[in-house]
Amino acid sequence: MVHETIEKYQVSSKNIYNMDESEFAIGSSLSACIIINAESCSQFQTQPGRQECVTVVEFICRDGTVINLLVIFQRTNFNTE
Predict the structure, then answer these.
(1) DSSP symbols for 40-65
(2) Considering only CA atoms, which of 59, 66, 71, 60 is closest in space to residue 24?
(3) Does a structural domain hold residue 52?
(4) Which domain does 63 fall in, by range?
(5) What per-residue string of b and e applies to 19-43 under the rule 16 or more CB within 10 Å gives b?
(6) Residue 80: inside a domain
(7) Contact assessment for residue 55 and residue 21, using Cβ atoms and an 8 Å cutoff
């Protein structure tokens, strides 16, 4: 379906992008280091502490070019004036 749409509308490679979003916790944590088998389906989560979540979004074009990373930090101060 994607290939049909690209052909039908003659979409150029420079106009096709892939986007990926990753989230990271930064700061101190009460968790310990855990070593697990890579084939394990278990999910582990850090314990609450003084952490901040940072989201990183990347965009990669089909022609190989990239757009600068978008890094989203938690809002600390919002001035409405």
Answers:
(1) ------PPSSSEEEEEEEEEEETTS-
(2) 71
(3) yes
(4) 9-72
(5) eeeeeeeeeeeeeeeeeeeeeeeee
(6) no
(7) yes
pLDDT tens for each residue of 13-37: 999 999 999 888 777 555 555 556 6
Mean model confidence pLDDT for the chain: 79
- Give the C-alpha separation, 52 to 48, whole Å: 10
In a domain, 68, yes or no: yes
Q: Which residue has the tokens 């989230």?
A: 23
Q: Is residue 34 part of a domain?
A: yes
Name the domain count of the chain: 1
Q: Which amino acid is at 79?
A: N
- Residue 50 phi, psi dihedral angles, 5° rounding: -95, 75
Q: Give 55 or 49, the one with higher predicted confidence.
A: 55
**What is the rounded CA–CA span in Å between residue 9 and residue 72?**
34
